[in-house]
Known about the structure:
By secondary structure, the protein is of the alpha/beta class. The protein contains 28 helices and 20 strands. α25 (about 565-580) links the parallel β18 (about 555-560) and β19 (about 585). α4 (about 145-155) crosses α21, α7 packs across α13 and α14 crosses α24. The model is unreliable at about 1-70, about 75-90, about 125-160 and about 400-410 (pLDDT under 50).
Amino acid sequence: MASIDEEEQSGAEIRVSDQTNGWPTSFHARPPSSAASGGAATPPRSWQISPRNSFGSLPSRSSRNSYSCSWFGVLEWLGFVTESKQRGWVKRKAVKKRVKGVVVVVIVLLACFVVMDWWMLSRIQESSHGLKFKYKVLRANSSTLSIREELEKLGKVKKPQKTIYARLLAKAAHALAEGQNKPEPRDLWQEPFILASSWRPCADQRNWEPSEGNNGYILVSANGGINQQRVAVCNAVAVARLLNATLVVPHLLYSSVWRDLSQFGDIYQEKHFINYLKPDIRIVKELPLELQSLDLEAIGSVVTDADIMKEAKPSFYLKYILPILHRHRVVHFVGFGNRLSSDPLPFQLQRLRCRCNFYALQFVPKIQETGALMLRRMRQNGTHFGPLDHYLVGPFAESKVKGKSDRSMKGSRYLALHLRFEIDMAAHSLCDFGGGEEERRELEAYREIHFPALTALKKTTKLPSPVALRAEGLCPLMPEETLLMLAALGFNRKTRIFLAGAHIYGGKSRLAVLTSLYPNLVTKENLLSSSEIEPFTNFSSQLAALDFIASTAADVFAMTDSGSQLSSLVSGFRVYYGGGKMPSIRPNKRRLADIFVKNNTIEWKVFEKRVRKAVRQTKRVRARPVGRSVYRYPRCKECMCTTEEEE
């Protein structure tokens, strides 16, 4: 009745005239003035229409100055019951028919409104049993699917994984469905080229004499996965040169977590490793016979990680390790990892670490060949290869198609995504991921087995709450958050995505949102046939090497945890050889957490703008900060040269 009140305040006249069935009708009403009621709003008076004249006689002039709250009053105001200028009788049957028509129209409109309201709410609301919103996905056969249907299709669980971002995910689904033909942001697949291209690789340059390794032999047993082991090997090379020692080809420890029996020669080319570093250090395949029989632990020649502080300076090795070499002629580093500082380190020693990482460690032909096959399939073009392929897969980067130029045909671009969301990461973070009490019990049980020190710490120390951890950006990005980031950045539904890693916590049900909105997402298991991947099946380090190749060669690499070794090594490799054309997306999780927390209120356009700004700032080109790893930040004078230096 708001419109009636406005008319009453203005004192306007309402005139409705009609000419139907040969008889003129009109309605003429003037609302009562505010003065008449003393300036106060009073209830309108209903017309007093008797059964005898309710449809045939006319209301009095005084009654025409008021409005009725009854149905007939409304109908009169709308002009359906009017005064005949010729004082004719209005037939009861005709008016009844018009009233029924109006009522039917009103009911139909209300029903349509209710149906539309229900449909819109069903797209964005989450029920207590899981996700209920639906969205359109534009597959080849264009259909309407829901996440629940997608899960049932995958045959994983009856109850879908819960999410805390139902509203934003619905908006992302809508934006992706509408943005099929919209151009992507101009800088989406680019790095700040001018600044990035001013750096070029130069760690292969040497300015010293070869080391004879006269002080003894260094054995290294590297623990962890392939990426931690790679860092350990490069650090061991630098320590061997520092101590003027001979390095024995590193040994890779068996891990109960990784369960991989692979040794150095199963992953890297031993001969190339030895020969390439010959101008720097002396490397042999095994200890001399006279030293092999020694009980190294009994004579005090075994040094563990517990004996060496993290980021130990060169002075530590000269003071404590060199005397052992002089005394026993051999030192065995067990579990050797990140035990050599980034700074301060002599210029040439730092350059040696870069030389080992970017040149000396090349994968064996079996891994290179399969990696090259994956790259061709990701690009959907057998004759095209990327700028980093030669450094990753060696001779297999060349086209096998005769008579065609490798660079004549441009393959499809693809995005590589390292989703660091395994159960160990989730458990160690102490965060919640929307799975309720069942999830908390599962992660706590995993912590008790694999992180007993953390479990003990929880009992004695008050640790930050999951909410506080998330606000500080200390929680790994969930697949849902990763999807929102990619959609906000502008990657459309057609984007080809290579997903690195395996064993995502929550399995296929957790990935359902991501795979539904980005249907062109694949893993190495999807790209390769069962016979092609079978030689690597029981060797996690070799499988990780395939992930390394596909991620490093991608047109864009996106990480969800910048602290992981794979992300660090891949992004560093892309910087070193990329020539300013290989961007990496390294999100600021603290800033993203501040944006995600506004899930219930933020509009999609605002969300896009804020996410793009947060990620764009991490793509700035800068030299290696003091104390940071050269494997991740090779833009430093020890590893790379600039055009200014050359001029």
